[in-house]
Amino acid sequence: MVGYKKYGMTLSLLLLMPVISTAQQKTTKSVANHKTENTMNTKWLWKSAYSAPETLDRLLKILDKYPEVLQYSRIDQQKVAAMSGENIRPVECVFFQNSKLVGKILQANIEAAAELPIKAMVWEDKHHQVWIKTTDIDALNEQYHLNGADGAIKSIHELLPE
After folding, report:
1. What is the pTM of this model?
2. Confidence category of residue 40, pLDDT binned at 50, 70, 90
């Protein structure tokens, strides 16, 4: 099986989760009760104890350690909205993918490329709580009939805190 563990990412990304979330066992219930306009799988949603920009900075700092993780555009949506005179709460997005796993996903179904690279969105809600949400890999697996993409989906799951 090809996986993140093989490439040394599991420990670092698991170390990031406590940085991003505030004691996962304490937040599980509040994350599950978090209401958004869209129904989402809360497995891909975490609380952060830091500001939106700092949360994303911390994620990128860890991803920088791994040359196989390609990072793409970082977009500050608050600044973009300000260009048209709108004032919104902090929200930033970044796109990234692991070059050693993307091939497995695309071998399973080339059309899954429409959902790649992975997106991480960090925002501050109306209660000033900062959240991070990533692409729902389960939905990607189901929608594109990846059937686990030769272990790639399982490898991504292994990154998640219990």
Report:
1. 0.73
2. low
